[in-house]
């Protein structure tokens, strides 16, 4: 009984450090969920910057970084149209140190770390024969995770749990299971699936970013359909960590239709 009480105190202590934050404004899609964070955005951004630098250096060593100049120019062109639209959700994102690289890996994957550190894998471009609209859907989705600070949210949950375990471990003699912020950011970016709520938020904000940038938001639906066909019984890694289901397709259809006027307005100006 004493051990249980001590563990409860440890868990409570770990959670006391959380603060409630509003990372983004709602936009047309109306994403306005409050979030609970136990680690600062400065710590997470610094960790992401460190992890990203190490990963790009490793890709460079393997001669896998930005090998195809045409691919790099294409991805950066799409990114440059998406980034200005982030101001609708959070004006401070315009000041982020945005960076995007294409990594020559035969894998269907893409991601965006906190603070705008992005990567697109050549396997996604080639295996999906992706259109610019579809690539904008992928990148808009990943950028949305960064805007909503989903990695910070996930790291906060992990660190809260690890802090509780660490305190309990010190009391009960089971060791320290903590890890660095940089390692935690890399882990949640590359390995751990996001929650259904986080995925839905990224889907909704992503189609709005694409629409405002002049990309057809309905391409997000076509993208998921392509991914499912490509995967068969063994889905690509990017798809496996973003689990598709009929509810998700219906949600994308509804929100793509909702932001379609934004796409039409943006297209008329181009």
Describe this structure in words.
- The structure is a single chain.
- With 270 residues, the chain is mostly helical.
- The chain is built from 11 helices and 5 strands; from the N terminus they run αββααβββαααααααα.
- It has helices spanning 2-16, 41-61, 69-82, 122-127, 132-147, 150-172, 181-190, 196-212, 219-231, 237-240, 246-269; strands at residues 19-21, 35-37, 99-103, 110-113, 117-121.
- The strands form 2 sheets. A 3-stranded mixed β-sheet has the order 3-5-4, sandwiched between helices. The chain has a two-stranded antiparallel sheet with strand order 1-2.
- Strand 4 and strand 5 (117-121) form a beta hairpin.
- The longest helix has 24 residues, at 246-269.
- The chain is globular.
- The termini are far apart.
- Mean pLDDT is 82; it is low at 1-16 and 161-178.
